From TrEMBL:
InterPro entries: ATPase_NBD (IPR043129), Gcp-like_dom (IPR000905), KAE1/TsaD (IPR017861), Peptidase_M22_CS (IPR017860), TsaD (IPR022450). Belongs to the KAE1 / TsaD family. It is found in: Cytoplasm. Required for the formation of a threonylcarbamoyl group on adenosine at position 37 (t(6)A37) in tRNAs that read codons beginning with adenine. Is involved in the transfer of the threonylcarbamoyl moiety of threonylcarbamoyl-AMP (TC-AMP) to the N6 group of A37, together with TsaE and TsaB. TsaD likely plays a direct catalytic role in this reaction. Its cofactor is Fe(2+). Fe cation binds at H110, H114, D302. This is tRNA N6-adenosine threonylcarbamoyltransferase. Binds 1 Fe(2+) ion per subunit. The gene is tsaD. Residues 23-308 form the Gcp-like domain.
Length: 339
């Protein structure tokens, strides 16, 4: 099916067009620069930017894909989770297009879309697979018998999300926003074994995560250096922090695969773009005989293609479309694939 996907859960206006598992267009207009000086996304500013970017971004995507609105089989939109105000802009636009064109509307889960996008790069997801979902607002281990109909949560963070920890540590180190990509880059010239930071919940027998203790430990370590009047070895701190996060994520992900006898691990969400996570996951999966699937970095961070990919999967699976009066749900649970 030919599906157009609309993503507005945060600061990216993402429009994607897919034909089944084939990506035809992935157009993103980001308001990230407008938020940089506030050190985080300002919802009102983001909502306004989505409103302005929506029509031109859809038009650009259609042009890139070489299709018209009439050609579409369905419209998919992120219904949640995310910022209530920004979600509403996307959902309203999707409803308007669906109504005007007489096409089915699918309100989809942003997190399941982070998983489904993998199909654009590596083909159908094995049923089941395990997914490590690591993003700015979420960190979960999922058992995914079928991304269109059956997503189960096995564990998640009890405090900060992995991406949130990256962003907060970047702020402690004065590196800018969003912190993930900057820490990734900075860490390349650092020693990951320079400082031993705590690995929260590593051996607690659950599939939950905790990153706020790690974040505080980094802040305390940096403060102590500064108080002593010593220079802060930024690259070493970044590398050592990143190592602690990635160590826990990969160990627990492999443990889930073994416990559930699943031989495919998928990693999705913005933090899946992290080069050290990709490297360590590969090493540990190879060692455990698990096949690893991670989309290219551009498909890990928020985009419209992921929404279109999940929409296409729902259509292909015969899942019923959404009603035209669906709400935007800022706290939609990860297990609700379609609203
Ligand atoms: P959610 O998906 O939970 O709603 P979100 O959509 O805001 O949250 P994503 O766009 O999926 O989040 O991911 C953004 C997060 O990914 C940010 O916290 C960012 O710092 C982090 N991130 C992006 N690239 C990297 C990287 N290379 N290394 C580490 N973290 C990264
Ligand atoms: Mg973003
Ligand atoms: Fe996201």
């Amino acid at each position: 099916p030919l599906v157009l996907g609309i993503e507005t859960s945060c600061d990216e206006t993402g429009i994607g067009i897919v034909q089944g598992h084939t990506l035809l267009a992935d157009t993103v207009a980001s308001s990230v620069d407008l938020h940089a000086r506030f050190g985080g996304v300002v919802p009102e500013v983001a909502s306004r930017a989505h409103l302005e970017a929506m029509t031109p971004t859809i038009e650009r995507a259609l042009k890139t894909a070489g299709v018209t609105l009439d050609d579409l089989d369905a419209i998919a939109v992120t219904a949640g989770p995310g910022l209530a105000g920004t979600l509403m802009v996307g959902v309203a636009a999707a409803k308007a297009y669906a109504l005007a064109l007489g096409k089915p509307l699918y309100g989809v889960n942003h997190l399941a879309a982070h998983v489904a996008v993998d199909q654009l790069e590596h083909g159908p997801l094995p049923k089941p697979c395990v997914s490590l979902l690591v993003s700015g607002g979420h960190s979960s281990l999922l058992l995914v018998p079928d991304v269109a109909t059956d997503v189960r949560s096995l564990g998640s963070t009890v405090d900060d999300a992995a991406g949130e920890a990256f962003d907060k540590v970047a702020r402690v180190l004065d590196l800018g926003f969003p912190g993930g990509p900057i820490i990734d880059r900075t860490a390349r010239s650092g020693d990951p074994a320079a400082i031993t930071f705590p690995r929260g919940k590593l051996d607690d027998g659950t599939y939950d995560f905790s990153f706020s203790g790690l974040k505080s430990a980094v802040a305390r370590w940096v403060e102590a250096k500064e108080r002593a009047g010593e220079p802060v070895p930024i690259a070493d701190v970044a590398a050592s922090f990143q190592e602690a996060v990635v160590d826990v994520l990969t160990r627990k992900a492999v443990a889930v695969c073994k416990a559930h006898d699943v031989d495919h691990l998928q990693i999705g969400g913005g933090v899946a773009a992290n080069s050290r996570l990709r490297e360590m996951a590969k090493q540990r999966c190879d060692k455990a005989g698990i096949r690893l699937r991670v989309p290219r970095p551009g498909l890990c961070t928020d985009n419209g293609a992921m929404v279109a990919a999940l929409g296409a999967e729902l259509v292909a699976s015969g899942v019923h479309d959404s009603r035209l009066d669906i709400p935007a749900d800022s706290s939609l649970p990860v297990t609700t694939v379609r609203v």
